[in-house]
Amino acid sequence: MSRLTKRLFLMLSLTAVAVAAVGAGSASAAQVGSCVFTGLAGNLTPGVPAATNPAGPLATGTYSFSGDALNCALANSNGTVIANGGAHITSSGSYLNLLCGTGTATGTATVAFSNGQTFSNIGYTIAFAGGTGALAVTSGATGGGEVSIVPGDVPAPVGAGSGGNCVTTAVTQFKVYGNFTAVV
Q1: Structural domains counted in the chain
Q2: Which residues, 6+ apart, have CB-to-CB distance to 117 below 8 Å?
Q3: Helix H or strand E encompassing 16
Q4: Residue 28 lies in a domain
Q5: What's the distance, Cα to Cα, between the start and end of the chain in Å?
Q6: Structural domain of residue 50, as residue ranges?
Q7: Is 172 within a domain?
Q8: pTM beyond 0.85
Q9: Does 2 fall in a domain?
Q10: What is the C-alpha separation between 116 and 17, in angstroms, rounded?
Q11: Residues 55-105 pLDDT 10s
């Protein structure tokens, strides 16, 4: 079983548990979405400084994100899966960089599922250390996940591409890989 299949199976299992917990004793019409996604966090303004920056690596700024989730499940409050398939995710927010790939990102996201359902204005914070971070949903829903970021040049040779590399050039975009489960 591939790693992606194992993650999706785990997320679907967690979705069922979350839906059961929310649905038990509740008359609310909660929905649970779980996705594995990839995308690009770009337009970092200013760019995340390179390690060789004479002024140091500390920076704050803004970013935008756009990505797709090919593997999603959306379930209703009874635990019935009402959509399987993809979703498009957009987001924007601010970042605090302590060292390239270590810091925080805070923003709001919209997740548009393939069946037409949308989770809007979902607030989140991601605390990164060494390019991997824990995603915590902070408003508009409950939930969380895991996110990894890779500077725009990687895996090309340092300086060969666009987007920066954390070593010799400021990073203006990160490739993003992650997963989440959110109850709305």
Answers
A1: 1
A2: 31, 33, 74, 82, 83
A3: helix 3-23
A4: no
A5: 30
A6: 35-70+85-176
A7: yes
A8: no
A9: no
A10: 24
A11: 878 899 999 999 999 989 989 888 898 888 899 999 999 999 998 899 999
